[in-house]
Structures are given as C-alpha cells and as structure tokens.
Design goal:
7 domains; 52 strands; 0% helix; Jelly Rolls; 7-stranded antiparallel beta sheet; PKD_dom_sf; Immunoglobulin-like; elongated
Length: 720
C-alpha cells in the first residue's frame, strides 16, 4: 500500500557518508551533553512518569566502542559521527525511558534525519509484552501528526525487521530515519524516542540514537567549464526516482547528466520514498537548472611595512574574487606554511622567512569551486626582540591585565599567540600560566615577538579563631598566636606595615595575620584580624600586705584569701606549687598570693607579698599582790597585756569605790603595785589595805578588730 504525504519517514541502512553539520542545536549531541533534549523515565506502561535526565538511563556516548550484547558487532557511535546517546540500559525491571527533541520548523530544518540502533532481549513473550523501541512525531497538542508515517515501532522478534542475533539478543544495525517537516513550517514538533524492557520485568531493551537537521531541496551543481551537471537529493532515503518532462532519468540519490542535453530553466522532479512498518511514505522535491556558476578567484597582498613582507609582521590578503550565477559559501586559504583560514579577507603571520605559495579556493553553495595561487617572499624581521623579563609574577588581588606587565618603560604590542593578527587590548585580564607575546613597533613595522609567561599568585587570607585569649603570667608573644596558613606575617595594622617580631609581647589589641609566598614575594592583600585578650588581674591585689591573726584562731592559708576572688597562695615568690588552703600559717613567715579568673583560666602575673604575724588575742590577769618589796608579786601582772597598748583598767574595793584607774596599763612602767591613785577614800599613792578588790580591764586591737573587757577579783596582801 502506497501513501503519499508531504511528511515522510524513511528507514534504510546507514550510508557511509555523514549527513553534515546539523541545523538544529545539539541534535547530534555534539556539545557532549543533553542540551536541547528532554528526558523522562518510568515503567513499561508509563514511560514519562518521572521527568529529567537520569545518568545510566539516558547516557551520552563519547568514546567509540562495540556493544557487548551484540557479540561485539554493533558500534555504539554511528560512522561519521562523534557522539550518540544510549536510551535505556541492561537493567531489567520493566523500565522505560524517553528522549524528546522539539523542533521549531523553518526553511533551514525541514528535514530531520536521525540514526538509531536497537538492542533487545527476545524472551518470546506476547507482542504487547516484548522489549521494544518506538518513535513518534507529535504536534504541539501531543497528537501524532500522521498515524501511518508519523510512528515507527519495533519489538523483539517482530517479523520483517533486519534483526541480527547474539545469544538471546536481537539487534538492529545502525539505520537512518528522515522526517520531511516542510508542511509544518512555523510549528513546533516533538520527536519522541522511547525504549521499554519487557513488561514482565525480566528482560531488557535499549537503543542508540543520533540526529541532524537540514533543508529539503535539490542541489543543482553546474559549474563553468564542466561538461556535466549534478543533481543531489537529501541522502538517506530508501528509494529515489528522478524524472524530467515526466520521463524517468535516474534512481540514485545523486545523478550526473550532460549539460548539452538540457537548457537553463529545465525542471527535474525527485520522488523520495521511505518505509515505516511496511507503509510507503513519499515526498517530491523539484530542482531547476540554472546558468553555470562562474568563479574568478583573485587576491592581493598588503602589509604595514610598505612592499616588504617580514616575519612576525601581519600580512593582509585582500580578496578580489568575482562570481556569477551563484553565491560563495566557503573560502579556503592555504598560506603555504602548513596553516589555513576560512575567512574572506584573512591576515596571516609567518614565523619563518622564505618563498611561500598562497592558494585561495572559492566554493559555491552548490559545490562548484576554483582556485588561485601566487608566490610571496617573506624576509627576516630586522627589529630586535623586546627587552622584558620572563616570566613575570603578579600578586592578586587585584586582577592584573596586560598593562601590568613590567615593560621597563618601553611600549610593546601584545598578542595571544606568535601568529595572532589581532592585538590584545591593554585591559585584557591575564590568565595564570598563560604565555603572551609582545613586539616592538618601529615605523609601521612590528618586530618579532617574545613570549612572556604570566604567573598569577592569589595568596589566600589565613583563617583561624578571630578571638584568642592568653594569660599575662605566661608572657604570650606573637609566636603564641595561631592561624591556618603558610609563612604567616603579623602586623599591628590592617594595611600591613612593619612586620612584628615573633618575640613581641601581646597586649589587649588587634593583630593581623598575612600569608606570604616566599617564592613569588606575594602576600595576601588583606589580613586576618585576631582580637587578643591578655588576662591579668594584678590590679586587683596590692604589692604587699601585712596580716595579723589571733593565735587562738589557729589561722590557715585560707585566711590569706582575698574576699570575692579565687586566691592561690605560695610559700615562695617563684614557687609553682600552691599551698593547701587548710595548711596552718606560721608567725613571721612571708607568703605570696595571686588571684585566678576561671572565665579565661588566667592567674595574675603579680603575687602579693603577705607578711604574717600571729599574736595572742586574750589576756590573763594574776589574782594576788603582796606589798612587801621583795620583788615577788609586787604589782598586778597581766599576761599578754604587752600586745594591747590600747587598754584601760579600773580597780574597786568591796564597797564599789574606785581606788585605781589607768590607761595604757603595762606600758612605760604603768603598773598597779597596791597603791591607790583614784577616788577619795584612800589617799593617793598610799597602800591599800589587805583585802579583795574587783577589776575591770578594757583592751582592744584595731588591726584585729578586737575590743574586749576582762573582769575579775584580785587579792591585796598589805604586810603593814
């Protein structure tokens, strides 16, 4: 059954000729990725369940190899191509994968040509359960544009397919499918490729694909001076039928005919046929014979150095080609030194002197071409090489440019290669480990180029703790600071300045760490700020202290502690062993106390020198006086009264009458020897009669905050 549609789908064995560069973005995966493609994955009955490309289910193939499941016979990339995509994999589980390519159809992409190869396990299930590969052409509504020629479907073991066999695998060699999209110019169409494992989950199916776009037309190649002309249709169709005046004239993709048998204006029709699942799909294209394309290639040579061509000095090739009955599609230049160009009016730099044959080949859009060659003589460049240091190192930031090269006061012109014809602007950013080329200008001639390597050194800013704490007692210095980095320099200012010695004592301040590279001489442009806190609490304690204690209180080290402060006591100014807080103090000893702050674990750098005095804090009066001048019990003796100069004493008779009173008793020979000095009962300085008397003694000591009163009885024996 024949079907005639402007849409065609063709299937045939792959031609050995490449389709050529694609007019559709990355349809041939030439970007090495899936740019321009959409992917889905899912199950046998729902292949678009999950959107997105999944590596392993949609995979770019960039290295040629042979598929192991075809007994090593199927290349993974089709001949003439550099990339392909594998759709699916060798995993089972009733998986399905999709790849979709959307085309905005215009006159440049009216033919979509893709290539595919299929690898399917054949478990012998029912047709609807078998692994399969499907292609559909969909419009913007998601509908198949033609049910006969808009769908291609192949399943494992399908009759009428060109299957090859490897164990339990059936596979199709690379084939080409072409789609005529010319009836859909201005519309968006989607080409949908789908692979499925078997629906039972135990057998796999996958395919390889690649695609290109071109325009659907007859190429008429009729060149001046030729006796024949050539008609070419798009490659890849199953059948071609050429007719002229409704008479068949050929059945190949390309047809060569004698010019003398036809005249300009004659038309040639080509019927293109392909087959989709046994359905013939046909389209027609027409070519018109034109006048012969006439090409007269010509160029002349120009240089900034007058009539002299010099090495390293750019030479301009001015294209003066003329042509008729066509357009020039391509220029091919051969400069005779192994280099070429496709520009219309190129410039070229020769590195060596000598005579070179320069050839220009002009090619029309239909493939006609003609060449022109001439010899040029290139002389050695007499201008000296630039006097400039190589390599040159630049510290970053800021990012250096061409203008930052140290040219020793000279003016140089810069290029990115020894043969570049376009100068680099002075604002061109430098790239690390890149070689640049500079030349002198003398008159209008540029001299030979010197290679200069740019080394960019971006020394990182050190890292670390931005707040660092130390104790003054440990005498911290710059060497005590810690940051991460190599060859660290410390400064007291954010801008740098003089380098601080490692022995510089730290204070409560901010210090800045810079990393330095000794090879390049570069350092980090900014410093890492470290705020330093040096803990010292010496101001909280005096330099020296005298402390007095009562011996009756049995004072210990704890009694030397400063109120509200954690105190550490030593028995020596240089001792590192603290005394236990319950250790008994000794009278007359000197102790050394520091204070400790738990928040920063710092002990004061200073130790307070504490002189300790331990004295009695109680008096013991004797209770008898004998007034007989025998130097025994001749006065009222009070033990320990010498520790309390601030005292007063009063003595009363049994009638409560005061008979003696004295301040500072016991000092300056102030002793009570049985004689009255107060009251009106007994004459002063007269001996008191024998009897019992009552005393009251007040004594105090401000240093110990002591204020006591002692009361008791004393017996006076008057021997008169």
């Amino acid at each position: 059954m024949n079907k005639h549609y402007f849409l065609l789908v063709l299937i045939l064995f792959l031609s050995q000729k490449s389709v050529g560069q694609s007019n559709c973005l990355n349809s041939d995966f030439s970007s090495g990725d899936f740019t321009g493609w959409d992917g889905n994955s899912g199950s046998y009955g729902y292949p678009s369940e999950y959107s997105g490309i999944i590596t392993g289910r949609q995979t770019i193939i960039s290295t040629q190899a042979f598929d192991e499941n075809t007994c090593g016979l199927l290349p993974k990339i089709p001949p003439g191509e550099l990339f392909s995509a594998r759709l699916g994999n060798m995993q089972t589980g009733s998986e399905a994968e999709e790849l979709n390519y959307t085309i905005s159809v215009d006159s440049n992409n009216t033919v979509f040509i893709y290539k595919y190869a299929v690898v399917l396990q054949d478990p012998g299930h029912e047709e609807y359960e078998q692994p399969r590969f499907t292609i559909r052409i969909l419009n913007s509504n998601g509908d198949v544009i033609n049910p006969d020629c808009g769908v291609y479907d192949v399943y494992a073991g399908q009759p009428g397919q060109d299957f090859q066999y490897c164990n339990d695998v059936v596979w199709l060699p690379w084939k080409t499918i072409g789609i005529d999209l010319s009836p859909y110019i201005g519309q968006n169409l989607k080409i949908e490729f789908t692979t499925r494992d078997c629906s039972r989950g135990g057998h796999y199916g996958y395919a390889y694909i690649s695609a290109k776009c071109s325009n659907l037309k007859v190429n008429v190649k009729i060149c001046s001076g030729d006796s024949n002309f050539t008609l070419s249709a798009p490659e890849g169709f199953a059948q071609y039928l050429w007719t002229h005046n409704n008479q068949p004239i050929g059945s190949t993709q390309s047809l060569t005919l004698p010019i003398g048998s036809y005249v300009p204006g004659d038309t040639f029709n080509c019927a293109l046929t392909s087959f989709s699942n046994g359905v013939a799909c046909t389209s027609n294209i027409i070519g018109v014979l034109t006048e012969s394309v006439i090409i007269n290639p010509l160029f002349n040579v120009a240089t900034t150095c007058g009539n002299s061509q010099l090495t390293s000095n750019p030479i301009s090739f001015v294209n003066q080609t003329t042509f008729q009955n066509g357009t020039i599609q391509q220029w091919l230049w051969d400069f005779g030194d192994g280099t070429t160009s496709t520009e219309r009016d190129p410039q070229h730099v020769y590195l060596n002197s000598g005579t070179f044959t320069v050839t220009l080949k002009a090619i029309s859009e239909t493939g006609c071409y003609k060449t022109y060659s001439t010899n040029i003589v290139v002389n050695n460049n007499p201008i000296p090489l630039p006097n400039i240091t190589d390599p040159q190192t630049f510290c970053m930031p800021p990012a250096p440019t061409i203008s930052d090269f140290n040219s020793n006061g000279n003016t140089f012109f810069w290029y990115d290669s020894p043969t570049a014809t376009v100068m680099l602007p002075l604002s061109t950013p430098l790239i690390h480990n890149t070689i640049y080329y500079c030349a002198l200008l003398q008159g209008n001639c540029y001299g030979p180029r010197k290679a200069i390597k740019a080394i960019l050194k971006n020394v990182k800013v050190p890292t670390g703790e931005s707040i660092q704490k130390f104790c003054l007692i440990n005498h911290p210095t710059i060497a005590s600071l810690t940051v991460t980095g190599n060859y660290i320099e410390w400064h007291s200012q954010a801008q740098g300045g003089s380098i601080l010695s490692s022995t510089t004592p730290l204070s409560n301040s901010t210090y800045y760490a810079f990393e330095y590279d000794p090879i390049s001489g570069c350092r980090s442009k900014t410093g890492f700020a470290v705020n330093v806190h040096v803990g010292d609490y010496s101001s909280l304690i005096p330099d020296t202290l005298f402390k007095e204690f009562c011996e009756e209180d049995n004072p210990t080290v704890q009694n030397l502690f400063f109120e509200g402060l954690i105190t550490i006591v030593y028995d020596n100014i240089n001792s590192n062993t603290p005394l236990a807080e319950n250790e008994t103090l000794n009278d007359g000893n000197t102790y050394y106390a520091s204070v400790y702050n738990a928040a920063d674990a710092c002990e004061s750098d200073k130790r307070c020198e504490i002189s300790v005095s331990i004295v009695p804090c109680e008096i013991y009066p004797y209770n008898t006086i004998t007034i007989n001048d025998n130097n025994q019990n001749d006065y009222f003796a009070i033990k320990n009264i010498e520790y309390f100069p601030d005292n007063d004493i009063e003595i009363y008779n049994r009638f409560g009458q005061i008979v003696y009173k004295k301040d500072n008793y016991g000092f300056n020979n102030n002793w009570f020897n049985g004689k009255a000095n107060a009251g009106d009962i007994i004459e002063k300085n007269k001996k008191l009669p024998t009897g019992t008397y009552y005393y009251i003694i007040n004594f105090k000591k401000e240093s110990l905050q002591l204020n006591k009163t002692k009361k008791g009885f004393i017996y006076i024996l008057n021997n008169e």
